[in-house]
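Batch job 17 of 40 flagged for manual review because the log was empty.
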Amino acid sequence: MAPKDTVNSVYTPPAPVSTATRNDALADSPPAPRKKADKTGRKLNRKTLLAINIVSVIAGLAAWTAFSAVGIVGLPGPLEVLIRGGEVLADGTLGEDTGASLARVLSGFLIGSLLAIPVGFIMGWYQVGRAIIEPWVQFFRTIPPLALLPLVMVTMGIGETPKIFVIFLAAFLSCVISTYQGVVSVDKTLINAARVLGAGSYVIFMRVVVPASSPFILVGMRIGLGAGWATVVAAELIAAPNGLGMRMQQAQQFYDMPTILVNVIVIGILGLVMDRLLLMIEAHLTRWQERR
């Protein structure tokens, strides 16, 4: 049986399409639909964000004024609180209490953070260190620091040491968990790539693990700072000669709402300023990180 002609035929490539023909075809085809811009991903400039912050503060003050005008739970108005704040500032009471509380928070927060960072690195980098330290961290993390305050006062007295210790404990537990999580969350691809390039364990730890876990560390420090302020107010309620928490307790006994609100606002302002300072440090140390 004779073979078919298609078997012995030689393949002939198609004739090339000229550039003019290709351009004509593209011109006749309908244009591709454009995607709409994602407005949620648009980054606002600093002036716009500052304007939004100012509007938010003004709206909050207006709502506060409205609530006090209708007599909700005897809440004093912003003007009354401002006058009371000027009085305690003039007689030096507010400055003394603010300095005392700020010193306690800074002492406990700095000691707790400086100790939590190396402990978190040890837990995340060495399995033996994790096996030794993690049970104790998880045990004390479930106990509120204020629950240990009576025990601490019995063993350490009623001076500054027990107050600073409970603040230290609150800051330490918040920061050590974030540091540990940052170390174990480092991308293994980065570590393997560094090893392929000849980097040793020390170089990998300092040049890969530490920078990659920095955002987690700073988040833990911010959480620890808030826990420190919450703890100092409660710690000053017991046997404190001065402080914002102690002054709030005294004002509560006389139902002095303006004084209570003055101290609450001061604590909020101090916490906000310290948190913004940590954000500035985070932005400087993690400039490589993509932000929205």
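Reviewer: the log was empty due to a logging misconfiguration, but the result itself is present. The two ends are 74 Å apart (CA to CA). Unflagging and moving on to job 18.
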